[in-house]
């Protein structure tokens, strides 16, 4: 019985890891678990430090004010560590050493080199994609294969790319150069300016990048 409970909790945690923050109701529907059962598993995962419960964003609250808004469950750093390979302590120590010696330039160059490698490999996958939607979808698939549990969807006048997991979150939290270089890589791959809205490294539940569709802007008369 205990093994079955553990497997179910693992499924609940993985659902949040791969799809991003979710309410108990959404998780129960997705995993076909009773509301009472899902809440029991969520309570255990929160107690273990794997998940944390947060108030929903203001935009997600029913404007008609019906009832109390449901809490959103988010993966914690401890939870992510349960599903990822331990990051290279030696590499982190080396970066700290370089930074302590005033070699910030070397840290930036290292982050840039890593981003260039990502760009080179991803470019082959995006090469035959015809439009921004196809490109962003292909980029999400590539990133998922790299361990980022990514997905994309249309958002307003563009696309929104979400990375629900970050294998280097601990490194990026100390060295934002890695997030900056990665964002630049996305811009080059997609052929347009992109805007990073949130990052796991800074404590957000998901890394979110907005990708404006310049064709939509032109159609709407907002670009010359």
From TrEMBL:
<dbReference type="InterPro" id="IPR050313">
    <property type="entry name" value="Carb_Metab_HTH_regulators"/>
</dbReference>
<dbReference type="InterPro" id="IPR036390">
    <property type="entry name" value="WH_DNA-bd_sf"/>
</dbReference>
<dbReference type="InterPro" id="IPR036388">
    <property type="entry name" value="WH-like_DNA-bd_sf"/>
</dbReference>
<protein>
    <submittedName>
        <fullName>Unannotated protein</fullName>
    </submittedName>
</protein>
<dbReference type="Pfam" id="PF13412">
    <property type="entry name" value="HTH_24"/>
</dbReference>
